[in-house]
Amino acid sequence: MRNKTKASAAATMVRLLSQTRYEVLPTASIEDQVLEHVDRAEAVTVTASPGKGLEATLDLTERLTKHGYTAVPHLAARMVRDRIELEEICARLTSQGIDRIFVPGGDADPPGDYPDALSLLEELKAIGSPFGHIGITGYPESHPTISDDLTIQSMWDKRRYATHVVSNLTFDPEVLTTWVGRMRKRGITMPLLLGIPGPVDRTKLLSMATKIGVGESTRFLAKHKGTFARLAAPGGFTGEKFLEKVAPSLAPSEMFVEGLHVFTFNQVAATVAWRRDLLDQLTRSEEHTSELQSRQYL
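Request: output the structure for the sequence above.
Response:
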């Protein structure tokens, strides 16, 4: 039974790793990194920050799309000025064949006409639902400024306008699996992309953070200081260990966990290599197990 459970967990990890997309920030060097290391068949999402503005996000998304990638822009609701700008963004993206977006609330202060993701999603519906795939954020752990009850209710409200959920970072396997179970019991059956960090080098991480902009960097580091501490600690969190622990609970089809959303922190080469190496190891292990099992019947 133990070997069967282990094999099932490994199969789940292979399935999730086979459906991976990479999140990047729109810095000056990121396009070249993506072109060098990411296969055209893999998806890339482009974050949005008040410091750089939506133009940086949209511009990089368009360039990656022209290179043949499935590029997914983050349309942070609070960064969109009004309906006129939203319509312009929609026309701009759809004219390039871009059919996928991710809609977080965002951190812009003060906001434009859309104080949260739900209000922007409702506006997208009103202007004709121009995108076929729309992701929203799920929070396994407490949001720094929003109560847990409100985040769960918000996800329930947004389910009518979205096609999938992307979980925010958590380092606790039990918290993650409990949250997914609660979400499914509430009747939220949208597919889930599991948010996990790739491998992180402390020096490169801090260097990347400063490229966001002085004021924006301060907010970014303050918001994610616990994340960085866990990632940079020697012998600390690894994506592989996390996946091994959550895979058994996420294996059942009724959990609707379809893939991974990997936060690269712009360390693209290391993240892509980690994912490919782990997938190769697991695939070889599966093939070896299958061969041993078949021999038992010879």
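Strands lie at 20-24, 43-46, 70-73, 100-102, 133-138, 164-167, 192-197, 257-263.
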